[in-house]
Write a structure and sequence with these properties.
Layout (H helix, E strand, L loop, with lengths): L10 E5 L4 H12 L4 E5 L10 H4 L9 E4 L2 E4 L1 H12 L10 H31 L6 H17 L12 H11 L12 H11 L17
Parallel strand pairs: 1-2
Antiparallel strand pairs: 1-3, 3-4
Helix pairs in contact: 1-3, 1-6, 4-5, 4-6, 5-7
Length: 213
């Protein structure tokens, strides 16, 4: 069941500005036109390991939202909650069981190959972490699959943008920050441009090199 209620007060979003997980939550809040208050959590300084933050998410990860009495962690869980709570159209998380299952499949890809490939390559490059050569191979395999998939369609699932696109967007768009070029993937680049053209789109800022040092 979908409702179109508005939050009684701005949703508080605990984020790290350069986190793709945080960005996908912030992007969806903006696309829905919901009022929200960003609260920056400095992961470099270890603020996510402080007791006050761990009380919100014992796993010590961003993003976390507070919507009234509700505190909810995990970017994909946040996307699902916001869609079911505030998207009256039902377009972002389809009720059709096949389409919803396909969205969930891309959630798994976002939590697996997307993070382990381009996500971790970006972290290593920008924040001075140890480089794992497997990230390049994982990214290339993932982008090869996505390129073929998007060669036959404009979006990842169905006929219009869904949460699948938002879950996959940020770390794909910022893959070049991890020395993974997108030039070989014209269909992926077209898909990224389609998301960036959505009303309410907000970009994730690009951090300075070695922001963590």
């Amino acid at each position: 069941m979908h409702t179109a209620a508005r939050p009684e007060q701005p949703i508080r979003l605990y984020r790290f500005r350069y986190s793709g997980h945080s960005h996908r939550a912030e992007l969806f809040l903006s696309l829905l036109g919901l009022p929200y208050e960003p609260v920056d959590v400095d992961l470099v300084r270890g603020e996510h390991r402080q007791p006050d933050f761990l009380a919100r998410n014992p796993f010590g990860q961003v993003p976390v939202i507070e919507d009234g009495a509700l505190t909810l962690a995990d970017s994909n869980a946040i996307l699902v909650y916001l869609a079911r709570r505030y998207d009256a159209t039902g377009r972002w998380l389809p009720a059709d069981p096949v389409l919803e299952a396909q969205v969930q499949r891309w959630f798994s890809v976002a939590a697996g190959p997307l993070v382990n490939g381009p996500g971790n390559a970006r972290v290593a490059r920008l924040f001075g972490r140890p480089h794992d050569p497997r990230t390049q191979e994982t990214a290339q395999r993932l982008f090869g699959v996505m390129e073929q998939h998007l060669g036959e369609r404009e979006v990842l699932v169905g006929t219009h943008h869904t949460l699948a696109d938002l879950a996959m967007y940020t770390y794909t768009a910022h893959a070049p920050e991890g020395d993974i070029p997108l030039d070989p993937y014209p269909c992926i680049r077209r898909w990224l441009q389609g998301i960036e053209a959505l009303p309410g789109f907000v970009p994730m800022p690009r951090p300075p090199a070695r922001a963590g040092r």
